[in-house]
């Protein structure tokens, strides 16, 4: 079991997409020191465990007031056909289901809006049909309500032939809302007056 990270009162970890790639993922891949040690844990998110099992085993080490209901992990994305350098398909089968890609967007450098530094992929967990009957009631309730954002560096697939490092943010529940720190809505005072 992971120990909870002790952080100063009032601290919240709400990095932008660009921060996750530039200050965490890139440093992890290059073996450089991270801004805060053990804030983002290493975990195989594409292994035998279901999202429910990962959440249950890690929830005590992620204070929801610090992480705003998200869990952050470094993980390796595995190619379906390892050993084949031209293989592009990713193996996202986990436990009793798989992560289905909803969309992928480009992430731009904060200082140069024309420079693509990585990609953000939205994934939703889908349970395999034949095994639905074998799920516990709690797992059935949680099915399809798991959300995973997977961040990869531009050109990551050139680094390792069979797997790619990614930083992921993961949570359960509810409808997906746009992250407030990426593009916050204007406050009532900032909105232009109606005509």
Overall form: globular
Using DSSP, what is the number of strands? Answer: 8
Helicity level: 10-25%
- Main structural class: alpha+beta
Regarding quaternary structure, what we see is single chain
CATH topology: Metal Binding Protein, Guanine Nucleotide Exchange Factor, Chain A
GO biological process, one term: system development
GO molecular function: DNA binding
Keywords: DNA-binding, Nucleus, Transcription, Transcription regulation
Protein name: Nac domain-containing protein
Considering the chains and any ligands shown, give keywords for the structure.
195 residues; alpha+beta; Metal Binding Protein, Guanine Nucleotide Exchange Factor, Chain A; 8 strands; 16% helix; globular; disordered C terminus; Nac domain-containing protein; transcription
Descriptive notes:
By secondary structure, this protein is an alpha+beta fold. The chain has one domain (17-81, 89-172): NAC domain (Metal Binding Protein, Guanine Nucleotide Exchange Factor, Chain A), CATH 2.170.150. It has helices spanning 17-30, 51-58, 64-67, 137-142; strands spanning 41-42, 71-79, 90-91, 93-94, 97-108, 116-127, 146-153, 163-172. A hairpin with a 7-residue loop joins β5 and β6. It comes from Thalictrum thalictroides (Rue-anemone). Keywords: DNA-binding, Nucleus, Transcription, Transcription regulation. Residues 176-195 have a biased composition (Basic and acidic residues).
